[in-house]
Write a structure and sequence with these properties.
Number of strands: 14
GO molecular function: glycosyltransferase activity
Domain Glycosyl transferase family: 227-379
CATH topology of the largest domain: Rossmann fold
Largest sheet: 8 strands, mixed
Shape: globular
InterPro entries: Glyco_trans_1 (IPR001296)
CATH superfamily of the largest domain: Glycogen Phosphorylase B
Protein name: Glycosyltransferase
CATH class of the largest domain: Alpha Beta
Helix content: 40-55%
Keywords: Transferase
Strand order of the largest sheet: 3-4-2-1-5-6-7-8
Number of helices: 15
CATH architecture of the largest domain: 3-Layer(aba) Sandwich
Length: 411
């Protein structure tokens, strides 16, 4: 009989927000070896649902049972709205987890921050199951790095609680070597919970290198007035952890490079601030686009000549920008603004797929972008080719999925 595993992961198919797609692919890979139940929020905050619909609904994806929780609508700009959403999820996720029978394993991730791990700790206590804790982001370290949480008392209490979750877990999975170091530091290298590093991934069979001559890439370029341009692209979340509100200010240094355009694709907390800077300075070489449909992603990624992979100072060892995998899959050069020793920095240096400078070193960022802009086209292409080759050897989706499978079967 297959062991029973419950995933409590908030986002899941068909909701690909955050880690939803990765965890959907993981569950599909594991379904022959485990009887899987997933506890998740209704997709995309489900803002169009009936106001009086059921609190819980059930669904299936192949052999996977999905239990969905109806949650209140959330206004991401309102702290109270986010707290209400998170508290509701935490309460009902625990309620559903404790109702499950014959649970052998509980798998949680570090979302919501700290509470994701606490759900696993509570479940382990009452269900006598083994808890696997997948840390995608370390909190409160992430909030501390950007000054979002300033109370030393709250920080200390939050770190104590999440460290307790780590101590009580049966196995911890981090997504970068630098994050494993953070874990070891939390334990002061004493009595550390068994842990493994498994990289996140992209579908390298779906995201493939394409030239600007590809019909779909050409259409993307033409549709957005980018034909014939040298494109420096940032594609992803424009949140608090990337220093984009300051990096946008270097764009006015390239006025003499008439064919160079900065393209920012996505949404996030600092996007309006970035747009305001561009409007106030009447910059003509910056374009903002919304998130692209999933089926268009491989074309938008391949439209760039250079991709930005950036993190705020202090994020080393706290999280890994997963966009690096998609960029390497597309075979495009990377301009990294990353702390030395961070996971993304290591991948770029080892693969020789781009250039890297430290966060807040804005003058060097300008110099490195100018270097890539002036580089011979064949040399620029070679940066991207090396990234794709490295990914195919070390970071393929099937490699990471099988590492998860072998690990879970061994616990």
């Amino acid at each position: 009989m297959k062991p029973n595993i419950v995933f409590v992961i908030n986002y899941f198919y068909p909701d690909y927000a955050s880690t939803g797609q990765l965890l959907t692919e993981l569950c599909l890979h594991l379904q022959d070896d485990f009887t899987i139940t997933v506890i998740a929020a209704q997709p995309g905050y489900n803002t169009e649902r009936d106001a009086d619909s059921k609190r819980f609904t059930s669904d299936r994806l192949e052999h996977i049972k999905i239990l969905r929780i109806k949650l209140p609508e959330v206004n991401k700009r309102s702290l109270m709205s986010r707290l209400r959403y998170t508290a509701t999820y935490f309460f009902y996720a625990n309620f559903l987890l404790l109702k499950q029978k014959n649970v052998n394993y509980i798998y949680t991730i570090s979302q919501p921050p700290i509470l994701g791990g606490l759900i696993g700790s509570i479940g382990k206590l009452f269900k006598r199951a083994k808890h696997i804790y997948n840390i995608q982001d370390f909190n409160p370290e992430q909030a501390e790095a950007v000054g979002f949480m300033k109370s030393k008392t709250v920080l200390k209490a939050a770190k104590w609680l999440d460290t307790l979750n780590c101590k009580y877990a049966d196995h911890i999975i981090t997504v970068g070597q630098d994050m494993q170091e953070t874990l070891l530091n939390r334990f002061a290298n004493k009595n550390v919970t068994p842990n493994t590093v498994i990289n996140n991934w992209t579908d390298e069979k779906e995201i493939i290198p394409l030239t600007k001559k590809d019909i779909h890439v050409k259409q993307f370029l033409a549709r957005n007035g980018l034909t014939g341009k040298f494109i420096v692209m940032y594609s992803g979340n424009m949140g608090l952890y990337y220093d984009l509100e300051n990096l946008i200010k270097i764009t006015d240094r390239f006025a003499a490079c008439k064919d160079l355009v900065f393209v920012f694709i996505g949404e996030g907390a600092v996007k309006k601030q970035m747009q305001q800077f561009v409007e106030e300075n009447e910059l003509k070489q910056v374009l903002f686009l919304p998130y692209q449909p999933k089926e268009e992603l491989k074309y938008s990624l391949n439209a760039a000549d250079v991709h930005l992979v950036v993190n705020q100072k202090g994020i080393k060892g706290v999280s890994v920008p997963s966009k690096v995998y998609g960029i390497m899959a597309a075979g495009k050069p990377i301009m990294g603004v990353l702390e030395s020793g961070s996971e993304a920095h290591r991948l770029i240096v080892e693969s020789r797929s781009g250039v890297v400078t430290e966060p807040r070193n804005y003058e060097e960022v300008v110099e490195q972008i100018r270097y890539l802009y002036e580089l011979n086209h064949s040399e620029l292409i070679e940066f991207g080719n090396r990234g794709r080759t490295y990914l195919e050897k070390h970071l393929r989706r099937d490699l990471s999925l099988e590492k998860y499978r072998q690990l879970l079967l061994s616990i």
